[in-house]
Write a structure and sequence with these properties.
This protein is mostly helical. The protein contains nine helices and three strands; from the N terminus they run αααβαβαααααβ.
């Protein structure tokens, strides 16, 4: 039920965000979005538990669903799961929008980011990448049943980058998060050292115990099981569904 207390928190949080942002302009369409999402999350529409909302760029959709979903979730001891369409929006939410809403609410909750499988290095492919060379296939060194990881022969810089990745992984100096790699990744390197869900051997993989993707997802699942965080952010279509997020309510 959308109580007066929750409504007051939503209003106060909205006022707090507005005060912290010079030039913040309240929009009627955004206010309507906040109200409808809050009502849906609080069960005001009875059996109707889903809401589909569409609004043009500039409406303030991100703040709209945060300003409504967070207060309701906090009051009803539930979690918020957000799936974005782009990495850019994911980063915007984590760096800007969510901290602003949490600060306005006066809470110290910490959101967690659920990245897709191909945002992490695949150790199995990474360790094989130096030997998986289209030119070497012609020499008969490779198993004919193995697919080459490189579509074209890697450049000297790409080969050096892969060797550096291997060294960092073996020394436990890199989590395997591709976004944290200090150099700009070429599409060829990205394709060679990451693994799509359709090709992942999961627990049958010899590198499963150190798999960057499963370790990151396990940490997120552990946080959810322990009641934290209050939100989990994932990118729709980024492989976020590869792992169990059943703990998110």
């Amino acid at each position: 039920m959308l109580t007066e207390e929750i409504k007051a928190v939503i209003r106060a949080t909205t006022d707090g965000v507005a005060a912290a942002r010079p030039g913040f302009r309240r929009r009627r369409s955004q206010n309507l979005l906040i109200a409808e999402i809050a009502k849906t999350c609080a069960g005001e529409h009875g059996a109707q538990k889903h809401l589909i909302a569409e609004a043009p760029t500039g409406t303030g959709k991100s703040l709209g669903y945060l300003l409504s979903a967070y207060p309701v979730a906090k009051a009803t001891q539930r979690k918020v799961v957000i799936a974005t369409a782009t990495v850019a929006l994911q980063e915007q939410l984590m760096a800007k929008e969510i901290p602003a809403v949490l600060a306005a609410m006066g809470v110290s909750d910490r959101p967690m980011l659920a990245k897709g499988r191909q945002r992490y290095v695949c150790d199995f492919r990474l360790f094989q990448a130096p030997a998986s060379n289209p030119d070497q296939t012609d020499l008969g060194f490779d198993d004919p049943g193995d697919d080459a990881l490189w579509s074209t022969k890697p450049t000297a810089d790409e080969a050096r980058m892969v060797e550096s990745m291997i060294a960092k992984r073996k020394a436990h100096q890199w989590t395997g998060d591709m976004d944290e790699w200090p150099e700009k990744l070429t599409p060829s390197v990205q394709e060679a050292v990451t693994c799509p869900a359709s090709q992942c051997a999961a627990r049958r993989c010899p590198n499963f115990s150190t798999c960057a993707f499963y370790q990151a997802r396990g940490a997120l699942q552990g946080q959810l099981d322990c009641g934290q965080p209050e939100s989990a952010i994932g990118r729709y279509g980024d492989g976020a569904g590869d792992a169990d997020l059943a703990g998110a309510q």
